[in-house]
Amino acid sequence: MDMKKYSLPVYTSILVIVCITLVNTVCSFTGVVLPDMVIRILGIIDLVALVILVFFLVRLLASKRK
Q1: Which contacts of 26-35 are long-range, i.e. CB under 8 A and separated by 24 or more positions?
Q2: 3-state secondary structure of 7
Q3: Which residues are CB-neighbours of 43 under 8 A, at least 6 positions away?
Q4: Do the beta carbons of residue 49 and residue 16 sit within 8 Å?
Q5: Of these four, 4, 9, 21, 36, which has the most CB atoms within 10 Å of its CB?
Q6: Within the chain, how many helices (H) and strands (E) appear?
Q7: What is the mean pLDDT of residues 57-61?
Q8: pLDDT surpasses 90 at 44
Q9: Are 14 and 56 in contact (CB under 8 A)?
Q10: Of 56, 50, 27, 29, nearest in space to 39 by CA
Q11: Is 31 left (phi over 0), alpha (psi -120 to 50) or beta?
Q12: What is the mean pLDDT of residues 40-48?
């Protein structure tokens, strides 16, 4: 049960990180210049998703050790 409880935030965080990375990469390759505020907001969302990912992965690994 613990695995299912922690897997949704992990998968959601990974999906958010991949989507933001994809947007940045596609815009970089195509030459589209995003406004500075958009880049900063995407960066903040990326950092929040990374913190959530690490938090739930640590909790998941800790629950597996028990």
Answers
A1: none
A2: helix
A3: none
A4: yes
A5: 9
A6: 2, 0
A7: 88
A8: yes
A9: no
A10: 27
A11: left
A12: 97
